[in-house]
Amino acid sequence: MLQVSFIRENKELVLKRLEKRNIDATEMINDVIVFDEDRRRIQTELDNTLAESNTLSKEIGNLYKSGEVEKANVLKDRTVQLKEKSKELSDTLNNKTEGLNDLLYKIPNIPHQSVSRGNSELDNEEIYKKGDIPELHKNALPHWELAKKYDIIDFELGNKITGAGFPVYKGKGAKLQRALITYFLDKNTAAGYTEYQLPLLVNEASGFGTGQLPDKEGQMYHVSEDNLYLIPTAEVPGTNIFRDTILDESELPIGITGYTPCFRREAGSYGAHVRGLNRLHQFDKVEIIRVEHPSKSYEALNGMVDHVKGILKELELPYRILRLCGGDTSFASALTYDFEVFSTAQDRWLEISSVSNFETFQANRLKLRFKNSEGKNELAHTLNGSSLALPRVLAGILENYQTESGILIPKVLQPYTGFKDID
Questions:
Q1: H-state helical runs in 289-389
Q2: What gap in Å lies between CA 349 and CA 393, rounded to an integer?
Q3: Which helix (H) or strand (E) covers residue 114, if one does?
Q4: How far apart are the C-alpha atoms of 344 and 407, rounded to whole Å?
Q5: Cα–Cα distance between 173 and 403 in angstroms, integer?
Q6: Exposure string over 45-75, b if 16+ CB within 10 A, otherwise e
Q7: pLDDT confidence bin for 270, thresholds 50/70/90
Q8: Helix ranges (DSSP H) in 283-330
Protein backbone atom coordinates (compact mmCIF):
# COMPACT_ATOMS: atom_id res chain seq x y z
CA MET A 1 0.00 0.00 0.00
CA LEU A 2 1.36 3.39 -0.95
CA GLN A 3 1.89 5.85 1.88
CA VAL A 4 -0.55 8.77 1.88
CA SER A 5 2.24 11.21 2.70
CA PHE A 6 4.20 9.99 -0.34
CA ILE A 7 1.15 10.39 -2.60
CA ARG A 8 0.45 13.85 -1.23
CA GLU A 9 4.03 15.04 -1.70
CA ASN A 10 4.70 13.26 -5.02
CA LYS A 11 1.36 13.29 -6.83
CA GLU A 12 2.73 13.83 -10.35
CA LEU A 13 5.45 11.20 -9.90
CA VAL A 14 2.88 8.66 -8.71
CA LEU A 15 0.59 9.34 -11.66
CA LYS A 16 3.48 9.16 -14.14
CA ARG A 17 4.80 5.88 -12.75
CA LEU A 18 1.32 4.31 -12.69
CA GLU A 19 0.99 5.18 -16.37
CA LYS A 20 3.64 2.48 -16.94
CA ARG A 21 0.96 0.03 -15.82
CA ASN A 22 -1.40 1.57 -18.38
CA ILE A 23 -3.45 3.04 -15.55
CA ASP A 24 -4.92 6.52 -15.46
CA ALA A 25 -5.03 6.87 -11.67
CA THR A 26 -5.90 10.58 -11.62
CA GLU A 27 -9.36 10.11 -10.12
CA MET A 28 -8.19 7.62 -7.49
CA ILE A 29 -5.22 9.75 -6.46
CA ASN A 30 -7.35 12.90 -6.26
CA ASP A 31 -9.88 11.02 -4.12
CA VAL A 32 -7.09 9.85 -1.81
CA ILE A 33 -5.87 13.42 -1.35
CA VAL A 34 -9.41 14.71 -0.63
CA PHE A 35 -10.09 11.88 1.84
CA ASP A 36 -6.77 12.55 3.53
CA GLU A 37 -7.44 16.28 3.80
CA ASP A 38 -10.85 15.56 5.35
CA ARG A 39 -9.34 12.97 7.68
CA ARG A 40 -6.61 15.34 8.87
CA ARG A 41 -9.10 18.19 9.34
CA ILE A 42 -11.41 15.98 11.41
CA GLN A 43 -8.45 14.63 13.38
CA THR A 44 -7.37 18.18 14.24
CA GLU A 45 -10.91 19.10 15.31
CA LEU A 46 -11.15 15.94 17.40
CA ASP A 47 -7.79 16.62 19.06
CA ASN A 48 -8.85 20.18 19.88
CA THR A 49 -12.19 18.98 21.27
CA LEU A 50 -10.53 16.38 23.47
CA ALA A 51 -7.97 18.90 24.65
CA GLU A 52 -10.70 21.38 25.59
CA SER A 53 -12.61 18.64 27.39
CA ASN A 54 -9.53 17.64 29.38
CA THR A 55 -8.81 21.26 30.31
CA LEU A 56 -12.41 21.79 31.49
CA SER A 57 -12.33 18.56 33.51
CA LYS A 58 -9.30 19.82 35.44
CA GLU A 59 -10.93 23.23 35.92
CA ILE A 60 -14.14 21.60 37.17
CA GLY A 61 -12.15 19.63 39.73
CA ASN A 62 -10.49 22.80 40.98
CA LEU A 63 -13.85 24.62 41.20
CA TYR A 64 -15.40 21.82 43.25
CA LYS A 65 -12.40 21.90 45.59
CA SER A 66 -12.81 25.67 46.06
CA GLY A 67 -16.56 25.35 46.67
CA GLU A 68 -17.66 27.05 43.44
CA VAL A 69 -20.22 24.34 42.64
CA GLU A 70 -22.45 26.49 40.41
CA LYS A 71 -19.60 27.44 38.10
CA ALA A 72 -18.44 23.82 38.07
CA ASN A 73 -21.90 22.59 37.01
CA VAL A 74 -22.03 25.09 34.14
CA LEU A 75 -18.70 23.80 32.86
CA LYS A 76 -19.86 20.22 33.41
CA ASP A 77 -22.73 20.79 30.96
CA ARG A 78 -20.15 21.98 28.44
CA THR A 79 -18.06 18.83 28.89
CA VAL A 80 -21.14 16.71 28.16
CA GLN A 81 -21.53 18.57 24.86
CA LEU A 82 -17.86 18.13 24.10
CA LYS A 83 -18.04 14.37 24.76
CA GLU A 84 -20.98 14.06 22.38
CA LYS A 85 -19.11 16.09 19.78
CA SER A 86 -15.93 14.01 20.19
CA LYS A 87 -17.99 10.81 19.76
CA GLU A 88 -19.46 12.14 16.51
CA LEU A 89 -16.04 13.28 15.29
CA SER A 90 -14.48 9.94 16.21
CA ASP A 91 -17.15 8.03 14.25
CA THR A 92 -16.71 10.34 11.27
CA LEU A 93 -12.94 9.97 11.47
CA ASN A 94 -13.22 6.17 11.51
CA ASN A 95 -15.45 6.28 8.44
CA LYS A 96 -13.04 8.59 6.62
CA THR A 97 -10.05 6.41 7.56
CA GLU A 98 -11.87 3.28 6.39
CA GLY A 99 -12.81 4.96 3.12
CA LEU A 100 -9.24 6.14 2.62
CA ASN A 101 -7.86 2.65 3.23
CA ASP A 102 -10.40 1.15 0.81
CA LEU A 103 -9.04 3.51 -1.85
CA LEU A 104 -5.41 2.80 -1.01
CA TYR A 105 -5.96 -0.96 -1.17
CA LYS A 106 -7.03 -0.61 -4.81
CA ILE A 107 -3.96 1.33 -5.96
CA PRO A 108 -1.05 -0.86 -7.14
CA ASN A 109 2.56 -0.18 -6.33
CA ILE A 110 4.34 2.36 -8.50
CA PRO A 111 6.90 0.71 -10.82
CA HIS A 112 10.60 1.37 -10.37
CA GLN A 113 12.08 3.99 -12.71
CA SER A 114 13.83 1.24 -14.74
CA VAL A 115 10.53 -0.45 -15.60
CA SER A 116 9.34 0.25 -19.15
CA ARG A 117 5.77 0.90 -20.14
CA GLY A 118 4.11 -2.09 -21.77
CA ASN A 119 0.84 -3.95 -22.11
CA SER A 120 1.72 -7.61 -21.58
CA GLU A 121 4.46 -10.25 -21.43
CA LEU A 122 5.18 -9.51 -25.09
CA ASP A 123 6.65 -6.16 -24.00
CA ASN A 124 9.03 -7.58 -21.36
CA GLU A 125 12.74 -6.88 -21.86
CA GLU A 126 15.25 -9.71 -22.09
CA ILE A 127 18.34 -8.64 -20.15
CA TYR A 128 20.32 -11.87 -19.88
CA LYS A 129 20.57 -15.29 -21.53
CA LYS A 130 22.78 -18.24 -20.61
CA GLY A 131 23.28 -21.84 -21.68
CA ASP A 132 23.26 -23.76 -24.92
CA ILE A 133 19.99 -25.20 -26.17
CA PRO A 134 20.56 -28.96 -26.57
CA GLU A 135 19.92 -30.74 -29.84
CA LEU A 136 17.47 -33.54 -29.15
CA HIS A 137 17.02 -36.77 -31.06
CA LYS A 138 14.37 -36.86 -33.77
CA ASN A 139 11.83 -38.72 -31.60
CA ALA A 140 12.05 -36.28 -28.67
CA LEU A 141 8.85 -35.92 -26.65
CA PRO A 142 7.26 -33.18 -24.52
CA HIS A 143 7.33 -33.86 -20.79
CA TRP A 144 3.70 -35.00 -20.49
CA GLU A 145 4.40 -37.83 -22.94
CA LEU A 146 7.72 -38.63 -21.24
CA ALA A 147 5.90 -38.78 -17.90
CA LYS A 148 3.49 -41.35 -19.29
CA LYS A 149 6.17 -43.34 -21.13
CA TYR A 150 8.32 -43.75 -17.99
CA ASP A 151 5.36 -43.84 -15.55
CA ILE A 152 6.68 -41.04 -13.33
CA ILE A 153 3.77 -38.54 -13.33
CA ASP A 154 0.11 -39.53 -13.69
CA PHE A 155 -2.08 -36.65 -14.80
CA GLU A 156 -5.16 -38.80 -15.36
CA LEU A 157 -4.98 -40.26 -11.86
CA GLY A 158 -4.75 -36.74 -10.40
CA ASN A 159 -7.77 -35.77 -12.47
CA LYS A 160 -9.66 -38.79 -11.06
CA ILE A 161 -8.75 -38.00 -7.45
CA THR A 162 -9.24 -34.22 -7.56
CA GLY A 163 -9.44 -32.67 -11.01
CA ALA A 164 -7.28 -31.20 -13.75
CA GLY A 165 -4.13 -29.51 -12.52
CA PHE A 166 -3.45 -31.88 -9.60
CA PRO A 167 -0.85 -34.41 -10.86
CA VAL A 168 0.31 -37.51 -9.01
CA TYR A 169 4.10 -38.05 -8.94
CA LYS A 170 5.22 -41.69 -8.87
CA GLY A 171 8.41 -43.69 -8.34
CA LYS A 172 11.44 -41.88 -9.71
CA GLY A 173 9.24 -38.91 -10.56
CA ALA A 174 8.37 -38.47 -6.86
CA LYS A 175 12.02 -38.95 -5.86
CA LEU A 176 13.19 -36.39 -8.42
CA GLN A 177 10.60 -33.94 -7.10
CA ARG A 178 11.79 -34.49 -3.53
CA ALA A 179 15.42 -34.20 -4.64
CA LEU A 180 14.77 -30.80 -6.22
CA ILE A 181 13.06 -29.52 -3.07
CA THR A 182 15.93 -30.62 -0.84
CA TYR A 183 18.56 -29.29 -3.24
CA PHE A 184 16.87 -25.88 -3.45
CA LEU A 185 16.57 -25.64 0.35
CA ASP A 186 20.20 -26.66 0.79
CA LYS A 187 21.33 -23.98 -1.68
CA ASN A 188 19.22 -21.35 0.06
CA THR A 189 20.32 -22.18 3.59
CA ALA A 190 23.96 -22.28 2.45
CA ALA A 191 23.43 -18.73 1.16
CA GLY A 192 22.33 -17.59 4.61
CA TYR A 193 18.56 -18.01 4.48
CA THR A 194 16.91 -19.51 7.57
CA GLU A 195 14.56 -22.39 6.76
CA TYR A 196 10.95 -22.19 7.95
CA GLN A 197 8.11 -24.69 7.71
CA LEU A 198 5.07 -22.53 7.10
CA PRO A 199 1.26 -22.91 7.31
CA LEU A 200 -0.57 -23.70 4.07
CA LEU A 201 -3.66 -21.72 5.13
CA VAL A 202 -3.68 -18.02 5.96
CA ASN A 203 -6.25 -15.60 7.33
CA GLU A 204 -7.64 -12.55 5.57
CA ALA A 205 -5.21 -10.17 7.29
CA SER A 206 -2.27 -12.11 5.86
CA GLY A 207 -3.76 -11.90 2.36
CA PHE A 208 -4.13 -8.13 2.70
CA GLY A 209 -0.65 -7.83 4.19
CA THR A 210 1.15 -9.08 1.08
CA GLY A 211 -1.28 -7.70 -1.51
CA GLN A 212 -3.09 -10.87 -2.60
CA LEU A 213 -6.27 -9.31 -1.25
CA PRO A 214 -8.23 -7.58 -2.56
CA ASP A 215 -6.40 -7.96 -5.90
CA LYS A 216 -6.28 -11.74 -6.37
CA GLU A 217 -9.12 -13.23 -4.32
CA GLY A 218 -10.50 -14.91 -7.47
CA GLN A 219 -7.22 -16.82 -7.89
CA MET A 220 -7.14 -18.18 -4.32
CA TYR A 221 -8.94 -21.19 -2.89
CA HIS A 222 -11.17 -19.97 -0.07
CA VAL A 223 -12.33 -22.05 2.91
CA SER A 224 -15.47 -20.02 3.48
CA GLU A 225 -16.57 -21.64 6.75
CA ASP A 226 -13.36 -20.55 8.49
CA ASN A 227 -12.60 -17.58 6.20
CA LEU A 228 -9.14 -18.95 5.46
CA TYR A 229 -7.24 -19.06 2.16
CA LEU A 230 -4.97 -21.77 0.75
CA ILE A 231 -1.66 -20.10 0.04
CA PRO A 232 -0.80 -19.22 -3.59
CA THR A 233 2.88 -18.96 -2.58
CA ALA A 234 5.03 -19.21 0.56
CA GLU A 235 5.51 -15.45 0.19
CA VAL A 236 2.21 -14.92 2.01
CA PRO A 237 2.82 -16.78 5.29
CA GLY A 238 6.56 -16.09 5.17
CA THR A 239 6.28 -12.33 4.87
CA ASN A 240 3.44 -12.18 7.40
CA ILE A 241 5.80 -13.51 10.04
CA PHE A 242 6.82 -9.85 10.34
CA ARG A 243 3.34 -8.30 10.39
CA ASP A 244 2.87 -5.72 13.18
CA THR A 245 6.56 -5.90 14.01
CA ILE A 246 9.12 -3.24 14.88
CA LEU A 247 12.62 -4.54 14.27
CA ASP A 248 15.89 -3.02 15.36
CA GLU A 249 18.04 -1.77 12.50
CA SER A 250 20.78 -4.16 13.64
CA GLU A 251 18.47 -7.12 12.87
CA LEU A 252 18.47 -6.28 9.16
CA PRO A 253 18.79 -7.92 6.74
CA ILE A 254 16.58 -10.94 7.42
CA GLY A 255 16.41 -13.83 4.95
CA ILE A 256 14.13 -16.84 5.19
CA THR A 257 13.37 -19.77 2.90
CA GLY A 258 10.64 -22.37 2.92
CA TYR A 259 9.14 -25.17 0.88
CA THR A 260 5.36 -25.33 0.49
CA PRO A 261 2.77 -26.70 -1.85
CA CYS A 262 1.00 -23.78 -3.56
CA PHE A 263 -2.62 -23.56 -4.68
CA ARG A 264 -4.01 -21.37 -7.44
CA ARG A 265 -7.49 -21.30 -8.89
CA GLU A 266 -6.44 -19.23 -11.92
CA ALA A 267 -8.49 -20.26 -14.92
CA GLY A 268 -6.60 -22.29 -17.48
CA SER A 269 -7.08 -22.44 -21.20
CA TYR A 270 -6.59 -25.24 -23.67
CA GLY A 271 -3.54 -26.01 -25.76
CA ALA A 272 0.02 -27.25 -25.44
CA HIS A 273 1.13 -24.15 -23.50
CA VAL A 274 -0.93 -25.27 -20.49
CA ARG A 275 -0.55 -29.05 -20.85
CA GLY A 276 1.15 -31.27 -18.31
CA LEU A 277 3.19 -29.33 -15.77
CA ASN A 278 2.96 -26.02 -17.62
CA ARG A 279 0.06 -24.77 -15.51
CA LEU A 280 -1.23 -26.42 -12.35
CA HIS A 281 -3.68 -25.70 -9.55
CA GLN A 282 -1.39 -27.38 -7.01
CA PHE A 283 2.39 -27.29 -7.30
CA ASP A 284 5.50 -27.25 -5.13
CA LYS A 285 7.74 -24.25 -4.72
CA VAL A 286 10.73 -23.18 -2.62
CA GLU A 287 10.69 -19.48 -1.78
CA ILE A 288 13.25 -16.96 -0.56
CA ILE A 289 12.10 -13.85 1.33
CA ARG A 290 14.10 -10.86 2.51
CA VAL A 291 13.42 -7.93 4.84
CA GLU A 292 15.91 -5.18 4.02
CA HIS A 293 16.95 -1.66 4.90
CA PRO A 294 15.55 0.65 2.17
CA SER A 295 19.04 1.80 1.20
CA LYS A 296 20.16 -1.78 0.49
CA SER A 297 17.11 -3.44 -1.04
CA TYR A 298 18.14 -3.14 -4.69
CA GLU A 299 21.58 -4.49 -3.89
CA ALA A 300 19.76 -7.39 -2.23
CA LEU A 301 17.54 -7.84 -5.29
CA ASN A 302 20.62 -8.18 -7.48
CA GLY A 303 22.00 -10.72 -5.01
CA MET A 304 18.80 -12.77 -5.23
CA VAL A 305 19.01 -12.73 -9.03
CA ASP A 306 22.61 -13.95 -8.86
CA HIS A 307 21.57 -16.67 -6.41
CA VAL A 308 18.95 -18.07 -8.78
CA LYS A 309 21.46 -17.81 -11.64
CA GLY A 310 23.83 -20.02 -9.65
CA ILE A 311 21.18 -22.70 -9.19
CA LEU A 312 20.34 -22.80 -12.90
CA LYS A 313 24.03 -22.92 -13.77
CA GLU A 314 24.41 -26.04 -11.62
CA LEU A 315 21.30 -27.60 -13.18
CA GLU A 316 22.83 -26.86 -16.60
CA LEU A 317 19.57 -25.63 -18.05
CA PRO A 318 19.39 -22.91 -20.75
CA TYR A 319 17.65 -19.88 -19.29
CA ARG A 320 17.04 -16.18 -19.72
CA ILE A 321 16.07 -13.28 -17.48
CA LEU A 322 13.35 -10.74 -18.31
CA ARG A 323 12.69 -7.38 -16.70
CA LEU A 324 8.91 -7.15 -16.63
CA CYS A 325 7.17 -4.17 -18.19
CA GLY A 326 4.63 -2.14 -16.25
CA GLY A 327 1.66 -3.99 -17.71
CA ASP A 328 3.03 -7.39 -16.64
CA THR A 329 4.36 -6.42 -13.20
CA SER A 330 2.31 -7.77 -10.29
CA PHE A 331 0.05 -5.52 -8.22
CA ALA A 332 2.43 -5.23 -5.26
CA SER A 333 5.82 -5.24 -7.01
CA ALA A 334 7.98 -2.24 -7.89
CA LEU A 335 10.43 -4.26 -10.00
CA THR A 336 10.31 -7.92 -11.05
CA TYR A 337 12.77 -10.13 -12.91
CA ASP A 338 11.38 -13.33 -14.41
CA PHE A 339 13.55 -16.37 -15.06
CA GLU A 340 12.57 -18.65 -17.92
CA VAL A 341 13.97 -22.06 -18.87
CA PHE A 342 13.96 -23.10 -22.50
CA SER A 343 12.00 -26.25 -23.24
CA THR A 344 13.60 -27.76 -26.32
CA ALA A 345 10.86 -30.33 -26.83
CA GLN A 346 8.15 -27.65 -26.71
CA ASP A 347 10.33 -25.04 -28.44
CA ARG A 348 9.30 -22.35 -25.97
CA TRP A 349 10.37 -20.54 -22.83
CA LEU A 350 8.82 -21.60 -19.49
CA GLU A 351 8.68 -19.21 -16.53
CA ILE A 352 10.25 -20.78 -13.45
CA SER A 353 10.91 -17.87 -11.08
CA SER A 354 9.95 -14.29 -10.30
CA VAL A 355 12.27 -12.22 -8.13
CA SER A 356 10.72 -8.96 -6.91
CA ASN A 357 11.31 -5.90 -4.78
CA PHE A 358 8.13 -4.53 -3.21
CA GLU A 359 9.90 -1.61 -1.53
CA THR A 360 7.59 -0.30 1.27
CA PHE A 361 4.34 -1.42 -0.40
CA GLN A 362 3.89 -4.63 1.60
CA ALA A 363 5.61 -3.24 4.70
CA ASN A 364 3.08 -0.40 4.90
CA ARG A 365 0.22 -2.90 4.80
CA LEU A 366 1.98 -5.18 7.27
CA LYS A 367 3.05 -2.35 9.60
CA LEU A 368 6.54 -3.82 9.31
CA ARG A 369 8.97 -1.23 10.61
CA PHE A 370 12.45 -0.93 12.05
CA LYS A 371 13.90 1.56 14.50
CA ASN A 372 16.57 3.51 12.64
CA SER A 373 19.78 5.03 14.00
CA GLU A 374 17.88 8.16 15.04
CA GLY A 375 15.43 6.08 17.08
CA LYS A 376 12.56 6.70 14.66
CA ASN A 377 10.34 4.01 13.18
CA GLU A 378 10.83 3.52 9.44
CA LEU A 379 9.17 1.15 6.96
CA ALA A 380 11.37 -1.73 5.81
CA HIS A 381 11.58 -3.07 2.25
CA THR A 382 10.38 -6.60 1.46
CA LEU A 383 11.58 -8.83 -1.39
CA ASN A 384 10.91 -12.38 -2.47
CA GLY A 385 11.68 -14.85 -5.19
CA SER A 386 11.01 -18.40 -6.32
CA SER A 387 14.08 -20.48 -5.70
CA LEU A 388 12.58 -22.35 -7.45
CA ALA A 389 9.09 -23.28 -8.64
CA LEU A 390 9.24 -26.99 -9.38
CA PRO A 391 6.78 -27.88 -12.17
CA ARG A 392 8.46 -26.13 -15.08
CA VAL A 393 11.97 -26.81 -13.76
CA LEU A 394 11.02 -30.49 -13.74
CA ALA A 395 9.51 -30.15 -17.22
CA GLY A 396 12.74 -28.53 -18.43
CA ILE A 397 14.86 -31.32 -16.97
CA LEU A 398 12.69 -34.08 -18.43
CA GLU A 399 12.64 -32.53 -21.90
CA ASN A 400 16.19 -31.19 -22.17
CA TYR A 401 17.87 -34.22 -20.57
CA GLN A 402 16.01 -36.88 -22.57
CA THR A 403 17.88 -39.34 -24.72
CA GLU A 404 16.66 -42.15 -26.94
CA SER A 405 17.18 -44.61 -24.09
CA GLY A 406 15.88 -42.56 -21.14
CA ILE A 407 16.17 -39.33 -19.17
CA LEU A 408 19.47 -38.32 -17.59
CA ILE A 409 19.55 -36.68 -14.16
CA PRO A 410 21.59 -33.46 -13.76
CA LYS A 411 24.85 -34.27 -12.00
CA VAL A 412 24.16 -31.88 -9.13
CA LEU A 413 20.92 -33.78 -8.32
CA GLN A 414 22.31 -37.31 -8.46
CA PRO A 415 23.46 -37.32 -4.79
CA TYR A 416 19.88 -36.36 -3.88
CA THR A 417 18.06 -38.82 -6.16
CA GLY A 418 20.34 -41.81 -5.70
CA PHE A 419 20.05 -42.60 -9.43
CA LYS A 420 21.58 -41.22 -12.61
CA ASP A 421 18.77 -41.72 -15.08
CA ILE A 422 15.13 -42.63 -15.59
CA ASP A 423 14.61 -45.51 -18.02
A1: 297-315, 361-366
A2: 11
A3: none
A4: 14
A5: 17
A6: ebeebbeebeebeeebeebeeeeeeeebeee
A7: very low
A8: 297-315
Which tens digits make up the pLDDT trace of 191-223? 999 999 999 999 999 999 999 998 777 889 999
Q: What is the mean pLDDT of residues 53-80?
A: 84
Give start and end residues of each alpha helix (H) in 120-199: 143-149, 155-161, 171-190
Quote the CA–CA distance of 349 and 319 in Å, as a whole number: 8
Classify residue 267 as exposed, middle or buried by CB count within 10 Å of its CB (0-12, 13-18, 19+): exposed
When mean pLDDT is compared across 151-160, 258-267, 395-404, 414-423, the lowest value belongs to 258-267
Output phi, psi for 53, to 5 deg. Answer: -65, -45
- Rounded CA gap, 389 and 125, in Å? 21
Closest CA to 98 of 14, 29, 35, 8: 35
Q: Tell me the residue type at 132.
A: D
Task: Please return the burial class of 14, using the count of CB atoms within 10 Å of its CB with bins 0-12, 13-18 and 19+.
Answer: buried
Confidence (pLDDT) at 269: 47
**Residue 51 identity (one-letter amino acid):** A
Report whether 136 contacts 345 (CB < 8 A): yes
Side-chain-side CA neighbours of 227 within 13 Å: the count stands at 6
Question: What digits encode the pLDDT tens for the residues 381-404?
Answer: 999 999 999 999 999 999 999 999
**For residue 267, pLDDT beyond 70:** no
Per-residue pLDDT tens over the stretch 28-38: 999 999 999 99
Q: Give the number of other CB atoms < 10 A from CB of residue 205.
A: 13
* Rounded CA separation 213/361 (Å): 13
H runs (alpha helix) in 316-413: 361-366, 390-400
> pLDDT at position 64, please?
81
Is 0.85 topped by the overall pTM? yes
Q: What residues contact 124, with CB distance under 8 A and at least 6 apart?
A: 118, 322, 323, 324, 325, 328, 338
Count of CB atoms within 10 A of residue 33's CB? Answer: 15
Instruction: With beta carbons less than 8 A apart as the criterion, state whether 285 and 262 touch.
Output: yes
C-alpha to C-alpha distance for 328 and 335, rounded to whole angstroms: 10
